[in-house]
Amino acid sequence: MKIILTLFKQNKYFNLLNILIATVFSCLLMVLVINMDYTVIESNTVENFKDKNLYQISDELYDEKETSFFSVPSNYDKLYNFSKELEEKLKYIYYNPVWQPIGVADFKGDIKYDAYYESGNNQPPFNIGDTSYRTVKSMRFNKTVFDLNNLQLKTGKMFKEEDYVLHDNIIPIILGSDLSNIYKLGDTINILFYQKEFKAEVIGFLNANQKVLAANEPEVLLDRYIVLPAINFSEAPSAIKSFNSQNELFFKAILLSNSNGKIVTDSSPLEIKKTINEISTKTGFSDFTIIGANTISTDILVKMTEQHTGVLISVLVVLFLIIMIISVFVMYLKVKRSISTYLALLISGASLKDIYKIVIGEFIFANVIGCFIPVLFLLFITKGSILLLTNYLFLVIVFLLVSTLLINIMVKKTFHTIDIVQSLKG
Q1: Could you tell me which residues come within 8 angstroms of residue 68 by beta carbon, excluding any fewer than 6 positions away?
Q2: Which end of the chain is more exposed for a tag (fewer CB within 10 A), N or C?
Q3: Contact (CB, 8 A) for 188 and 105
Q4: What are phi and psi of 29, to 5 degrees?
Q5: How many other C-beta atoms lie within 10 A of the C-beta of residue 412?
């Protein structure tokens, strides 16, 4: 090791160049590893929708028909039973992401969190009594949305089974990563949800760049969203004490949104129609239609993700090849420049095998230094993700092993072209 350090100092410019190459390579590798991690999640997500048939359940309650339907209290129970049966049927996957802005009391975030910010139709704050509310981005998910989109938490916990059933006036919520600058775990937020006041408890924060396949667009980025569970009721509305004219809108909205989800399945349209008609007959609710969902956007998303994965792999391979070629070339120049030093070592009793080890040792030493800074940065930005660090170190080790093998071959060939006996004689 002492000899390696001595030679390292003697060839400081070449070794600094090696360290620079290793650092640049490691930084690029780190970026690729992080992107690959996101791509793997996206690939797993779109795989859940690939080659699947998607159908949309859409109610036909509009205007006077809706007014007439909800004028009969027992129809609330019919719609409740219908939505419950849709969710619990095992012949398909019931997928229900609902875009639903909510009012947040005394919201401290800036305008980018406004529900209509992207469309340029920002809504001013509004008051109810003495409380000021802002309309903020929010979505409601049933459990299937979390599962099919492989949503990952940064901190906290996911919704439990009981969180999907309304209890009193408290709703658990999970926040997008950007909202971690405003709230923390355990905070209680006053919200206005379908014109009904609730206390929302923050139980988790999503990782950055979490996305879901939504109803009207291929993907929704959740960084600025509040996520609520797709709550239902523990019993039919007619049996709930709070079921009255004051909360009429709340019950209507919950029941309708729970009944207008997507079906993800391998079944044919006829099979699905038969299954849903069975549910309709059982529950007594028939004011709906089954339509083919827009699978074009889903297909595009699948293809884009597959192409993205292919591009990343190609970039990784090309990057490996370019850096290896540059590293081997720099080491070749360094070896050629240091021939006299290596000959002196041979005179001092070292063997050619020792020289090869010294050259390899210098290369590994320079690369370890170059790879160390990105490791610290990776730990910082990923909050100590063991998986990302493991993937990064695995690729670094593969690079070092292959590069070491090539450099060993290069050094041997270089020495074979030199008449060592004549060189030692001077």
Answers
A1: none
A2: C
A3: no
A4: -65, -40
A5: 12
